[in-house]
């Protein structure tokens, strides 16, 4: 340093002790724990939080509605095993995000909803604060854990607890309530830094008991018609190689639940996906891996599962209370899937007997028969398209682009796409999950693109798309490689219903021949209207190659669908129809 510089430095007043505040501590706590992305909607009191997070190098994706930001956070959690973060404003913003938090919890996806809130003193005396609401109380029953922070010095601990609660054991949603005053609370920067916690081993391995493994192997070995069911817990666990080895070394046929598709390629010789009805009905021993016996598996009983008492269930799950939830589990294996599958493989040894050929041959025959029946329908190149023709085109594209991520919602659009489009790699299919909820489309698509960088194909019923359609602006703003295909059949299930009184449109139909493609054009993206599978193929391939935000309005025959898609049996219908007055 030269003399002049030296004098200037000496003349400076002694610096104030460095300070930090609530805003910075939240950001530092997230970053310290490897969280780099926030999904949210800005406003009082969290506007500066988003701004400062962006300035600190985090990716902050601003949405048009909190539900979609929340869905994005939830699926980011599923894809990465780190809790996805959703950031909302008080009361209405919080409530908009809450559906996504509850959905994440229901699906066992780790996420943290961080919401600003109004001042405790005013809220608790119900004195009518700006956006007043007792958010903590409302969130509590809808998520795994809920915390509120009143002192800046507790932010580090609160974020650590939220992360642990979200990812340990059965993953789920966590709520973190941050009242407005917290953000501007200041504290000494050094003390602040020391108050932060880097979570060590956030989701500890949960090793299954050796006798549980021995019991499971005994039951499995006794099987004449064994079956493995892979659920989205197995996809989440990222134990892909071990699961493949379990399936291949045991020789047992398997069916994937929808978001477990691709864990092994759907074209795998042991996949019984195309003979699902047969194997569920006929199997004598069923090994469930990260799949619950809820409505999606007909609760493990009834017609779907054949004669009463004809099944023995083995279940691998991290949540002990899942066992016997619907039917008796004769061999519960409680632990994390990676540890459980590793222990099973250990116990199986190298010469596990292959299942009887009578069983695997019967499955093979059924599967070939069903696939052959399907093949012709998929080749139909007519206008207007039916679901099969359109999905046949998309099936080919997904086979050629196995890294692309498929997002899928709707009724017919969902059920038929799930059956027709093969998945080739793990965690590439994201859909309506445990609730069969509409509205996950654009949120999931955005997070999938942001988190993985891979192109996303969102196959959407026209109704389903409408729930999150405004987020096409978000897709354009962040220039994400997302191609949305709207299966436009003019309505919910079908586009042909009428109001018997002749006054209004029927409850299930939309504006006829709408042009959803123009919504994407409005924001600078690419819009295409297609009427044949060939045109659809061309447009999707162009979108995937260019990685430009694209929306394809795929004109589907309004008569083609069926009410409620595959789950018509759950749809109560009145047998009393009065004549219009
Ligand atoms: P699907 O809808 O595909 O049938 P579910 O959501 O019903 O799947 O079931 C997923 C199950 O996986 C849940 O019961 C959950 O507790 C369990 N699970 C999630 N992650 C793990 C893990 N790492 N290890 C063990 N079980 C897990
Ligand atoms: C949050 C009820 C299930 S499926 C569906 C609705 C409204 C839309 C089906 O029409 P779509 O598909 O998408 O055009 P298609 O191919 O059959 O024509 N609100 C929520 N979730 C659900 N599940 C519903 C309503 C529903
Ligand atoms: Mg429709």
TrEMBL record:
Q: Give all residue intervals belonging to the Thiamine pyrophosphate enzyme central domain.
A: 213-344
Q: Which domain of life is it from?
A: Bacteria
- Indicate yes or no for the key word Metal-binding: yes
Q: Check the record and name the CDD domains matching this protein.
A: TPP_BZL_OCoD_HPCL (cd02004), TPP_PYR_POX_like (cd07035)
The Polar residues compositionally biased stretches are 561-575
Q: Which Pfam families match?
A: TPP_enzyme_C (PF02775), TPP_enzyme_M (PF00205), TPP_enzyme_N (PF02776)
Asked if the keyword Magnesium belongs to this entry, the reply reads yes
**Family matches, as Gene3D superfamilies:** 3.40.50.970, TPP-binding domain (3.40.50.1220)
Q: Which UniProt keywords apply?
A: Lyase, Magnesium, Metal-binding, Thiamine pyrophosphate
**One annotated GO molecular function:** thiamine pyrophosphate binding
**Listed cofactors:** thiamine diphosphate
Positions of the Thiamine pyrophosphate enzyme N-terminal TPP-binding domain: 22-138
Q: Which residues form the Thiamine pyrophosphate enzyme TPP-binding domain?
A: 412-553
Similarity comment: Belongs to the TPP enzyme family.
This protein is called: Oxalyl-CoA decarboxylase
